[in-house]
Each structure stands twice: as C-alpha cells, then as structure tokens.
Design goal:
Elements lengths: L11 E5 L2 E5 L6 H9 L9 H12 L6 H8 L2 H32 L20 H39 L2 H32 L10 H4 E3 L7 H7 L14 H15 L9 H24 L8 H8 L4 E4 L7 E5 H12 L5 E3 L4 H18 L1 H4 L1 H7 L7 E7 L8 E6 L6 H11 L12 H10 L7 E7 L2 H4 L2 H11 L2 H6 L4 H12 L3 E4 L2 E5 L9 H20 L8 E5 L2 E6 L5 H9 L7 E5 L4 E4 L2 E6 L2 E6 L18 H18 L3 H17 L4 H16 L11 E8 L3 H17 L3 E8 L4 H4 L14 E6 L6 E6 L3 H9 L16 H9 L8 E6 L3 H15 L16
Parallel strand pairs: 3-5, 7-10, 18-19
Antiparallel strand pairs: 1-2, 4-5, 6-11, 7-8, 9-13, 9-14, 10-11, 12-13, 15-16, 16-17, 20-21, 20-22
Helix pairs in contact: 2-6, 3-4, 4-5, 4-6, 9-10, 9-31, 10-27, 13-21, 16-21, 16-22, 19-21, 19-22, 24-25, 24-26
Length: about 850
C-alpha cells in the first residue's frame, strides 16, 4: 500500500482473511488498483468479484430479501426492471446454450426428440426423406435461435442502461453481480439437461483423447488450454474452408468437360451438356458463400493455429511413429539435423549454386534419354524427360519413444529431377523384392502362422535391422539388380544392361536436397522418401538372406524365418539357438546389424500383431506400440461422412482378420468402441457399423450381374451438404447423356490443421516450376498472365530476351509480349515484378488454370483470350 500510485489508491483498505473491503474516490480507480495488486506477487491473484462479494454481503445480509431492499429504496418499477433483467440475462445465455446443443446435434447427424414428428407408418422414420425433413426443421430451429440472440441482447443492454441510471453506481454493480452468480447456478442445470440428452442420443462430449498423450511439448513455449484443444485434434483434422478460389473451383468442372469431350455418345448435344454443367457450377459457387455462413459446427479458430505457425522459435511436426503432435525448439531441431548431416560417409555438401547443379543433373539425364529415345518409345521418353526440377527438402520426424528425441531424416523427393525415373524403375525392380522368406502384409503372415502346428514347443523371436535405408550399400545393390534382372524384361522396356545401369546410377546415386539454405547430396544409402528406397532395401536383403539361410549351420538354424522390410519373425527349436543365430547374421555383412527381441510368457509382438503360443498352437490378436496415442480421425472433421464410416469399417475388418479367437475379437471391439468414442464418434454409429460388417460376413448377399462400365473419377472440393446436391445435379446430367460411363465423385478438403503448421523448407520462388504467373508492369500496371513447366527464372530470362544458360542477351530472341511492351513504352522491369498465382504438377491442369486466370483477370498484355478452350466460363 505504501508503494501504490496515488492516482488510484483507495481511501480505505480493510481485509479479513481473503476478503477485502475497499473505498475509492472514483469507480474508474478499481480496475487499475486490481491490476496493480495482481502484479505484485506471482502467487497472489485478486478478483473484483471478491471485492463486490464482500460489499454485497454487507449491503444485502442473508436474513434480508433483495426484493424488499429494492422495493423499499427504489420502488416497484425498479424492482420490475431488475426482474426483467434477470429473465433476459438467463434467456440470452440459455438461447446460446440451446443453439450450441442444436449445432452439436446437426454436426453429429442426430435428430433431437422434439424435432421428430409422428408419421402414420413407423417405418417411414427410417427413410431418407423423413430424415431430410427433420434436418430441415433442425436448420429452421437453429436459424430461429440465432435470430433471437441479438434481439434479447439488445433488450438486455437497454434495460441494464436504464437500471444503472435509476439507482446508485454501487447498488447497480452489486445487483448485476448477484444476477451473474444466480444465473450460473441455473445454467449448470441447463448444461446437465443438454448433456443428458446428448448421452441418450449416443454422444458423450466428456470423453476426449488425453491431450498429454497426443501433444509432446519438448519446447520452451507454454501452450494455452485453447491451443492444446486444437492440437489434440491432430494434423489430419479438416476445417471448413472459408473460401474456395474461383479459378480452383472451376478448374474441376473444366477438367470434367475435357474428360467427356471425346466420348462418342451424344456428341450432337455437346453444347447443351456443357451449358448444363456450367449452370450447375455457377449456381453452386454462388450458394457456397451463403453455405459457409450457415456452418454451425464448433470448429476451432484459425487464429490459434496462425499464432503457433508464426512462432519462429518452435517447430511443430509429427512423431516418427504413431499419431500425435510434437513441438521442439527450432534451435534443437536444426542442431539435431545438422548432426545427422555432419556424417561425411552418408552426406556431402555441394558448394556450387543450386540452380547450376540441378541444371547439370537435368542435362545428364536428358542426354541419356535422347540417346535411347527410339528404343524406349515416345511415351516413356516424354514421361522421364525433366525440366524445371527442384531439390528435395530434408525434414526430421522425432523419435519420441527414445531418450533425447533423435530425428529420423526424411527427404521429400516429389518434383526432384530423378523422381519420375525412380518411379519408372520401381516396376522393373519389384520382381526382385520378394522371395520365399518375405511376407506381403500382416494378414498373409497371420494366415501362415495360424496354420502352423508344431509337434514340439518352439521359441519365438523378432529381429530388427538398425537404420536399414541409410545402410543399404548403393553400388553393391545396383550390381545385384543388374545381375538378377533378365534381358527379356529389359528388352520389353527398350533397355539393355548398359543403359539400365546408367539409369539406376542417376536415380539412386544423385539424391540432392536442401536444408537451411544449403544443398547436399546423399553419398551412400537410399533416401527415406525416394520411391527406390523400399525396392533397394528389399532387393539387397532378398539376395543376401537366401545365401545366409542356405549357409547357416544346422545346429542353430531357425525352423521359420519371415521378414517384412526390416522386421523379421523367427521360430527356433530351443531358446539357446537365438544368440548364435543373431551373431551369425551380424557377421555376414558390415552394413547390416540386427537387434533381437524374444518372447515373454509365450507372447511376442510382430508388426501390428501379438502372437501367443499355447498348446502347440499359435493365437493372434491386435497389438499397439507404446507410441500409440489414441488419436484417430475425429468425427467433427469436415470431410464426407462416408470417410468416417470407412474408418470404422476398416478397423473392424482389421480386428476380425487379426484376432484368431472370439474372445480376443470381443476385447478388440470393446477397445475400438472406447477409441472411437474418445475421437468424437457417437456410440450408436460404431455398433451400427459392427452389425453391418458381421451381417455381411455371415449372410453375404449374392453378387448381381452388372454390365461393366468405363469408370471416370471426378475430383471436387468438399462443401458439406452442398457437395452432395452438386453431385446429384451432375449425375442427373451425365447419366442421361453418358449411360456407358460410371462417374465417381471424389471430394477433398485440404484445409487441415497440418497444412497450417507446415515446417518444410520453402523453395525459392524463381526455382519453382509448373506455375501460373502474373507480371505487373511497375510503370503502368499493365498485366500479363502466363504459365511455365520450367523454372520461373528461365521464363523470366526468355521474357528479357536472354539465354537461360549464360544470361547473355540473345540476338534473335523469341517473341515476348512483356518485352515488346517494355521496349515500346520504355518501361523497364525486373524479376520482382513476377508473382506466382498457382501451381499444378499436371501440365493439362496448368494450361486450364492459366486460361481461367486470363479469362477472369483480363490482362492487357495477353494476345489471346485463353490458352485453351473453356466450357464453363
């Protein structure tokens, strides 16, 4: 009190335990003094409610009625006004809670009992029409409640203002504070009723995933409860899009029109079909803006994600195994990756310029492809020829189950110069990746192990290879691939041994990536993220393990050896055979080191299966690693409902195929019921999916004979119920005109939590390719829209009339509308005058996107209306 500033110091300060009474010269002094007290000690926090509560107890003793006090001091009109404020305060809060209850019901696809109406035949209540009408009524009720809120709040505000003008300042504060306290008790009863109704409908909002198991915060940042709530939804959680770019939306319909353009039936009605599609597209886009405003589901605020994304002191990423969210200090993250890159036997820094090095690698590949163009064919040549590639991007996934959280290095290889080549070579190498010891998946393994009936007790063991991908010797594996690939297979692709080796060397030995502004190449081992990674690792092991098993001494040789990638399941006649066999394997190759895990109490986990050996029989059940967090696809995620149903069916099917007994299946079903409930799924939905699955298993319907149709997939943005109205309208048009084609509509929503928290290094805009760009003249603001599948910097050099190799001025450059405008009006331009509008990996999508931007922006410097024909704009 001695140090308190005089401009808001109370004239009286008296305290009894934790209650304090104060007198101020002015009401405006209360809040500054409250803030001053709260700043004095970190453990002591004062609230003004306690101040008022103390005063309220003095002014309104328990043995005295508030009604009597107001009536005696201010009269009946003031009492009526206070009671009116009480009613409207409660109504305002109750309507908000009722609205939230209705929104939750709509979000979960359930109908409250008061919305349902009686029909003559009870079976009508199961029809789609009945449910549609019920949801229409639910929407009307939600709109009605939303309209009530501002009206009630306006009345409450006016009445409160009138009350404060009629009575003293102190009495108004006391009465309003009492009203708040009394209202909280009433609202608790409202919450209890709503929770009871939701529980009856199969919705339990109190059961959620454990945030402490989902979020691994190893950083110095302290998360708020709201941020934890958002992050606990997981990276795959989808949020409703607030807007869909016009050109991105109509790109889907342009692709649809180009897809059906060459179909034979109803060509004479082509204009009518495209006009109908165009009408549907424009109507849907207009409705979308209204539809976004009508989304009532409780989705998280994007401001929380943006605040986390913009924090440059942390890195938010996924864990190496399991689902979850890991937060690291950026300095620690970079330090761990730099430690990995410091291993000169695996990685090597490149000192030359990134663009120069990539261009050199592109030229090397393109020269080789030109030399074999005739033999491999024009289609393969066009597929593998590269221009405008980008370096891979290195990032790390923390191993949260290990001390110190080491990182697993991953290279994002999409778009690199040898990515398409690697995908092409995978189909040639795949026959070499399997042998008698490999298993296809856990289901085939379970079938094999369940059929085994050993005549004597056996011992189970599991071997794991340390850092398989980075330890696979590239040169040795390439030699193995060359020796084992048949000439007939190579000839069918137009290759011979010499060119095949050159292609393998380029695809496997030139893994170039960037990190923290520097460029590196991987010297040995296959990159995690490259399409060749699993193929090289499996080919190497398949070749050697056949020799290892054939040469293994019989006195400790396993009776069963099965491998999936770097995990191996073994059966031994005696436990004493395990260590000799482990030592034998570790002595076979200097790059390969196995670790061992043996059975405990006749149980062993392998892949996602727990195997039990009892009474000379193997029994299997599902197994989850310690890194399992309980996080799954949340029911409130803004995606089509069928995706959520498929997640139920998938895990039920997995449980059915893995569990070998009904007892273990029952335990797994009980676990899945809790798992889906904590991820927001209504309990009735899980058991409905379970009944349907078992019914199909034990009472399968005979397959009906149908005419095979050509299937075409149409990709569309997901917009909630509006998407299904759109699908219905398009189906009505397309099925009537193209009965021989089955159109499958795939809805997508890229507006995920993970997309807001990307931590991969961004590529330099001038090294971006497959982009639509916008040029704006700095002098007169004239615009030009173009597209390029090469680097943007190369296209800018062409506009300047310079060589893309040397950067020198060309004597006869190709025509450029930008350069002509610059010379004609003496308007110089620079690289900064070019801006990327959008990017598409597919060249066809790129041309359509360019045409859409030209059509909508009407740039002054473009000579043509569009780059290709448009049908919907």
């Amino acid at each position: 009190m001695n140090d308190c500033p005089a401009n808001f110091k109370p004239i009286l300060y008296r305290r009894y335990m934790d209650d304090t009474f104060l007198l101020f010269n002015d009401p405006s002094h209360i809040n500054p003094f409250l803030s001053y007290l709260n700043s004095q000690h970190p453990n002591i926090k004062f609230t003004s409610v306690l101040v008022f509560f103390f005063l309220i107890r003095i002014r309104f003793p328990r043995d005295s009625s508030i009604t009597h006090y107001i009536l005696k001091k201010y009269g009946k009109n003031t009492l009526d006004l206070y009671r009116k404020i009480e009613r409207n305060s409660f109504r305002s809060k109750k309507v908000e809670k009722d609205l939230k209850f209705l929104e939750i019901c709509k979000c979960y696809g359930t109908i409250p009992d008061f919305i349902k109406f009686r029909v003559y035949c009870p079976t009508f209540q199961t029809t789609r029409t009945y449910r549609s009408w019920c949801f229409d009524l639910l929407d009307w009720e939600i709109d009605k409640q939303k309209k009530k809120i501002p009206t009630i709040k306006k009345k409450l505000e006016d009445d409160t203002t009138l009350l404060t003008s009629c009575i003293s300042y102190f009495d108004s504060k006391c009465l309003l504070s009492l009203n708040e306290r009394n209202m909280e008790k009433k609202l608790c009863k409202v919450d209890f009723r709503h929770n009871k109704k939701l529980t009856k409908l199969g919705i339990d909002l109190n059961k959620k995933v454990d945030k402490n198991k989902v979020i691994f915060n190893f950083s110095d940042r302290i998360l708020s409860d709201e941020q934890k709530e958002v992050l606990s939804l997981g990276f795959d959680y989808c949020i409703p899009p607030s807007t869909i770019p016009h050109n991105q939306f109509f790109l889907c319909f342009e692709k649809l029109c180009h897809t059906i353009k060459n179909c034979e039936i109803y060509k004479d009605r082509w204009n009518h079909i495209t006009n109908s599609i165009s009408t549907v597209a424009h109507d849907t886009y207009k409705k979308f803006k209204c539809h976004v405003k009508s989304i009532h589901t409780p989705y998280p605020s994007l401001t929380l994600l943006i605040a986390l994304r913009d924090d440059n002191n942390i890195v938010i990423t996924k864990p190496d195994k399991g689902r979850g969210v890991v937060i690291l200090n950026r300095d620690d993250y970079f330090s761990k990756l730099n430690t990995i890159l410091s291993d000169s036997s695996k990685f090597k820094p490149i000192m030359s310029d990134t663009a120069t090095h990539l261009l050199k690698l592109e030229d090397k590949l393109n020269r080789l492809l030109r030399s074999i163009r005739t033999s491999i064919g024009e289609m393969t040549y066009n597929l593998l020829t590269i221009s405008g590639s980008k370096p891979g991007r290195l990032y790390g996934l923390p191993k949260i189950h290990k001390i110190g959280q080491p990182l697993r290095p991953i290279i994002s290889a999409i778009g690199t110069f040898n990515y398409n080549l690697a995908k092409f070579l995978v189909q040639l190498i795949t026959p070499l990746t399997t042998n008698e010891y490999t298993i296809e998946n856990s289901f085939s393994f379970i079938k094999e192990i369940s059929d085994l009936k050993p005549l004597r007790p056996v011992t189970m063991a599991s071997f794991d290879i340390e850092s398989l991908f980075t330890n696979v010797p590239l040169n040795e594996t390439t030699d193995i691939i060359l020796n084992k690939t048949t000439s007939s297979l190579l000839n069918s692709y137009g290759l011979n041994k010499t060119t095949y080796r050159k292609l393998l060397d380029i695809a496997a030995h030139n893994s170039v990536f960037t990190f923290n502004g520097s460029i590196y190449t991987q010297v040995d081992g296959v990159a995690m993220g490259s399409p060749l990674g699993p193929c090289y690792a499996n080919t190497f092991l398949c070749h050697h393990e056949q020799t290892w098993m054939n040469d293994c001494p019989a006195n400790f040789k396993p009776i069963l050896y099965r491998r999936y990638m770097d995990d191996t399941f073994l059966l031994f006649n005696d436990p004493s055979h395990i260590n000799p066999f482990l030592s034998y394997l570790n002595s076979q190759h200097p790059n390969i080191k196995f670790t061992c895990e043996t059975e405990q109490n006749n149980k062993l986990s392998f892949l996602d299966t727990s195997i039990t050996f009892h009474n000379n029989c193997f029994y299997t059940s599902t197994y989850r690693k310690p890194t399992f967090t309980g996080l799954g696809l949340h029911y409130l995620s803004y995606i089509p409902h069928i995706y959520k149903l498929n997640s139920l069916t998938t895990l039920i099917n997995r449980a059915y195929n893995i569990c070998s007994t009904w007892a273990s299946f029952h335990d797994e079903v009980s676990f899945l019921s809790k798992y889906f409930t904590t991820n927001g799924y209504p309990s009735y939905l899980f058991y409905k999916a379970l009944r349907k699955f078992l019914s199909q298993k034990f009472n399968p319907k005979p397959a009906s004979a149908t005419v095979n149709k050509d299937i075409k997939y149409i990709k569309l943005p997901y917009m909630g119920g509006l998407s299904f109205d759109l699908r219905k309208s398009l189906n009505k048009i397309l099925r009537r005109c193209y009965p021989q084609i089955s159109f499958r509509f795939v809805f997508y929503n890229n507006n995920t939590v993970g997309n807001f928290l990307k931590n991969k290094e961004m590529c330099n805009s001038e090294l971006c390719s497959n982009v639509v760009y916008l040029f704006t003249c700095p002098s007169c603001q004239a615009r030009y829209v173009g597209s390029t599948s090469r680097w943007l910097r190369h296209r800018i050099l062409e506009h300047k009339g310079k060589s893309i190799r040397t950067g020198l001025q060309l004597s006869k450059p190709s025509f450029s509308a930008i350069r002509e405008h610059s010379h004609l009006h003496n308007h110089p331009f620079s690289n900064t005058d070019f801006k990327i509008l959008t990017s598409h990996l597919n060249r066809f999508d790129l041309i359509i996107a360019e045409s859409l931007h030209i059509q909508t922006m009407k740039p002054e410097l473009n000579n043509t209306a569009t780059a290709t024909t448009l049908f919907t704009i």
